[in-house]
Write a structure and sequence with these properties.
three-stranded antiparallel sheet; about 270 residues; alpha+beta; seven-stranded antiparallel sheet; Cathepsin B, Chain A
């Protein structure tokens, strides 16, 4: 299953793409500001330059993208400085992962940013966005079976770990649309990776919701499925959105929503009624 997408989208974003790895949060911030401004004001690199300038003024070392993860507080402060008329909120948990909610938010041109794992590409060939490296029966379960299965979850990550040896912290990307493709509800992502980003990505919604929508907050990579939450705890994680277990602080369904500050009432109404 090839995941490249070249069609129209609800959110019409003229992307600015990162020039170096691990720049996804910077890319999201730059693209959000540009989208609501209606023109290209920033690149990810320009946002990083501004952050490092702020750090220098506080005698804090510059960001090393190979080691550092930008904190929410730093993203929030930079957004406020560069685009004071924009804001963002963060929500998490399975209750926010519904097509009805997403379609309502996209219709109002709110910027949805989802946190997810990148196992939708082959770690041995990351330039290709496709699921063909996975066993056919596993792909069938991931894409076409709507309900979550812990067995399928562990099968997926066991297969990926055998191939990649480790799973790092996840990636954030911008949702441009939610459309049906060949009978499958699919998320259209802006694909803010630093390579293999020529086209947008069409990611089956159930695959994302059930198996990709989790992450963790520390820098340690996962090297064995035994480090993943056991079934009972994983079910709790999906509902609550946060779980501390062993060395990991797990997250599930984390989504940032960028919006014009004066449209907060519209956003709250959608979140409360869908």
């Amino acid at each position: 299953m090839n995941l490249d997408y070249q069609g129209p989208t609800q959110i019409k974003l003229d992307r600015v793409l990162p020039q170096s790895p691990n720049s996804c949060r910077l890319s999201v911030l730059a693209n959000a500001i540009n989208f609501y401004a209606g023109k290209k004001l920033f690149t990810p690199e320009a946002v990083l330059e501004d952050i490092n300038s702020q750090r220098k003024s506080k005698d804090i070392p510059a960001v090393d993208l190979t080691k550092d993860t930008l904190q929410d507080s730093e993203i929030d402060a930079t957004l406020k400085k560069l685009a004071p008329d924009l804001s963002l909120i963060r929500v998490n948990g399975i209750k926010y992962l519904t097509p009805t909610l997403w379609k309502a938010l996209l219709l109002k041109q709110f910027f949805l940013v989802i946190n997810h794992q990148l196992v939708y590409y082959d770690p041995l060939n990351p330039l290709k966005n496709e699921l063909n490296y996975l066993p056919t029966d596993l792909v069938q379960q991931l894409v076409h079976e709507p309900e979550f299965s812990y067995q399928t979850f562990t099968d997926l990550y066991r297969f990926y770990l055998h191939r990649a040896k480790a799973i790092s912290e996840g990636h954030v990307d911008i949702v441009l649309d939610l459309v049906e493709i060949d009978g499958v509800d699919s998320i259209i992502l802006a694909n803010m990776a630093s390579y293999g980003n020529e086209f947008l990505i069409k990611l089956p919604f159930n695959f994302y919701k059930n198996y990709l929508a989790f992450d963790w907050t520390n820098e340690k990579a996962i090297t064995d499925v035994k480090e993943l939450p056991p079934e009972t705890e994983f079910n709790a994680l999906r509902n609550i959105g946060f779980l501390k277990t062993g060395q990991f602080q797990f997250l599930y369904g984390l989504m940032e929503i960028y919006y014009p500050t004066d449209h907060r009432g519209d956003l709250d109404q959608i979140l409360c009624t869908t």
